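Fill in residues.
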């Protein structure tokens, strides 16, 4: 494997929380030196003062295989990720069928390795069929490579079944990922309740539904001692409960989607279904509270929550349209909105985009450190462009950023020291 030496690079180090010009050397697929001289025979890459950071670890990506390959395949998701600076995809189990047996997990693992230019690791379902009644074989699934266990947005109403699953997960040290929503209140909701929902005549869900769902999950964590990660915290009402859980020593972390950090409920406008998400977009006050929670470290992870949907399922009346948005290619430029607005530094962003998700899942990625995998993204945070959804590499084009003015361009992406994307090629 060719030795690479990156010079004149603005190194974004989320561990040291530093942002400074330097050099980085890659040998045998790992980072071999920082701020050293170029080894003899190395391929020298002049970064032109642009940013070189650990590749993004995107926790919570939906891929259509198996069952919905027309929406997204491992190949198309991998190409989109590479173009977006995402070097590790953590895929959700909400497929058809669900990833709830070692056989299905082994199938998707093999398919992903064959088709994707970036790393793809999988989560498995917490309960069989994601139906919330009977736990999966968590031990066998862990042995087959499952990084965590979640039913995604299929929230169980059977608390006793969940308690058994959490207890078993605790005995194995497995990570449980919850979707904090009270399922009864959330059923049939299209937007967050309030004046905007009333004016549009759309069914809404009160923000307290998230708090209620989180309270139940945290009570189960306290009861069982399980390791727990909330996939998306989106309301200010949930933050005190999260803070108390951490102060009480519970093994709890939380994430938020890039859409809930950069958009609010008013963006729905005149029933624009590309803005229909689960959970729905929140108020501007909630959005700003989430940004502050990421800056303080209360919320550790930013993800795309990439959820592809075809044209037929989005071009419906707002209440009937599918929820979700693609985000593998737009995660980085959308995150640049937070940087350019002065909310978060690049090092703080990459702590949440790369370092923290890798740490939570026990992966070696996400660091600019000697011996770490050379999964890297070279990008210019300032390049302006207008997003054209039809140029996205995802099979589905359901992005809320279509036609938006954005900043931030990925110049090259490397996985294990091998270049998997270069702008203009």
């Amino acid at each position: 494997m060719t030795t690479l030496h990156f010079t004149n690079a603005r190194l974004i180090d989320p561990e040291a929380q530093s942002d400074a010009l330097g050099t980085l050397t890659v040998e045998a697929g790992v980072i071999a030196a920082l701020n050293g001289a170029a080894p003899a025979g190395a391929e020298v890459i002049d970064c032109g003062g642009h940013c070189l950071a650990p590749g993004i670890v995107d926790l919570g990506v939906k891929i259509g295989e198996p069952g919905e390959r027309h929406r997204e395949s491992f190949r198309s998701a991998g190409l989109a990720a590479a173009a977006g600076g995402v070097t590790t995809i953590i895929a959700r189990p909400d497929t058809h069928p669900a990833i709830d047996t070692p056989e299905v997990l082994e199938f998707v693992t093999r398919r992903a390795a064959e088709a994707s230019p970036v790393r793809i690791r999988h989560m498995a379902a917490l309960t069989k069929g994601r139906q919330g009644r009977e736990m999966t074989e968590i031990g066998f699934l862990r042995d087959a490579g499952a990084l965590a266990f979640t039913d995604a947005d299929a929230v169980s109403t059977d608390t006793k079944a969940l308690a058994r699953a959490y207890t078993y997960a605790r005995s194995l040290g497995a990570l449980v990922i919850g979707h904090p929503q009270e399922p009864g209140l959330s059923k049939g909701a299209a937007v967050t309740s309030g004046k905007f929902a009333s004016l549009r005549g759309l069914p809404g869900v009160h923000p307290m539904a998230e708090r209620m769902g989180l309270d139940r999950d945290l009570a189960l964590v306290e009861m069982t001692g399980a390791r727990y990660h909330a996939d998306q915290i989106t309301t200010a009402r949930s933050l005190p409960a999260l803070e108390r859980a951490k102060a009480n020593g519970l093994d709890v972390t939380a994430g938020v989607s890039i859409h809930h950090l950069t958009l609010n409920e008013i963006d729905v406008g005149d029933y624009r279904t590309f803005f229909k998400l689960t959970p729905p977009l929140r108020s501007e006050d909630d959005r700003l509270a989430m940004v502050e929670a990421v800056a303080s470290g209360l919320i550790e992870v930013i993800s795309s929550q990439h959820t592809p949907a075809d044209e037929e399922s989005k071009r419906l009346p707002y209440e009937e349209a599918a929820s979700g948005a693609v985000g593998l290619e737009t995660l980085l430029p959308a995150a640049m909105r937070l940087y350019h607005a002065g909310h978060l530094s690049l090092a703080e962003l990459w702590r949440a985009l790369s370092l923290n998700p890798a740490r939570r899942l026990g992966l070696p990625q996400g660091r600019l450190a000697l011996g770490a995998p050379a999964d890297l993204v070279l990008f210019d945070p300032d390049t302006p462009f207008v997003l054209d959804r039809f140029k996205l590499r995802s099979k589905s084009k359901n992005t809320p950023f279509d036609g938006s003015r954005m900043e931030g361009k990925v110049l090259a992406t490397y996985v294990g020291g091998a270049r998997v994307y270069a702008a203009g090629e």
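The domain at 55-360 is CATH 3.20.20.140 (TIM Barrel).
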